[in-house]
């Protein structure tokens, strides 16, 4: 059971990704968390769509893994960070993988690139042979000056 709270401390939930049923559960939990943080309906849907693609990649390409959902608070707004991790084959050429239409097999090749467009922050960290972590973050309040710089 969840304890929706307004506390400033970060809380993290880990969900296993090992089956299609888990994908549905991830979508449900992300929607609940985003709604609970006060994200607009449009923003909730964008985040859930991105999460759904990344979770499917974790399952299909990564051979399963997990997602960690972390509630953030930085004074200017509240955020939700989702980190999808697997210990699969990794992505040898991340730049290529991020290209619209690139798929290593049978997909549309729009999952990674599409997910990146749907959220405010996106990072891909992959080591061939070791696995992949893709992290996305959305905030309730966007401060362009403070949040457009990435590193
Ligand atoms: N977690 C992962 N582990 C290993 N390779 C991955 C992972 N995620 C993505 N990839 C690689 O990046 C490619 C592009 O991913 P993307 O999600 O954009 O397309 P796709 O999964 O092939 O098709 P779809 O449009 O159906 O999602 C994949 O084909 C795969 O080779
Ligand atoms: Mg995909």
UniProtKB/TrEMBL annotation:
The Histidine kinase/HSP90-like ATPase domain, residue ranges: 42-142
Stated name of the protein: ATP-binding protein
GO MF annotation list: ATP binding
Keywords: ATP-binding, Nucleotide-binding
Domain of life: Bacteria
InterPro entries reported for this sequence: HATPase_C_sf (IPR036890), HATPase_dom (IPR003594)
Pfam hit, one: HATPase_c
């Amino acid at each position: 059971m969840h304890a929706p709270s307004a506390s400033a401390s970060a809380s993290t939930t880990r969900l296993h990704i090992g089956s299609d049923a888990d994908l549905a559960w991830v979508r449900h939990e992300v929607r609940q968390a985003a709604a609970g943080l006060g994200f607009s309906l449009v923003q909730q849907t964008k985040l859930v769509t991105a999460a759904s693609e990344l979770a499917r990649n974790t399952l299909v390409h990564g051979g399963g893994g997990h997602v960690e959902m972390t509630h953030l608070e930085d004074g200017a707004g509240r955020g939700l960070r989702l980190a999808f991790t697997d210990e699969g084959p990794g992505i040898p050429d991340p730049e290529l993988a991020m290209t619209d239409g690139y798929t290593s097999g049978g997909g549309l090749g729009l999952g990674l690139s599409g997910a990146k467009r749907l959220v405010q922050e996106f990072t891909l960290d992959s080591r061939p042979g070791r696995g992949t972590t893709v992290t996305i973050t959305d905030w309730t309040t966007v401060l362009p000056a403070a949040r457009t710089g990435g590193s």
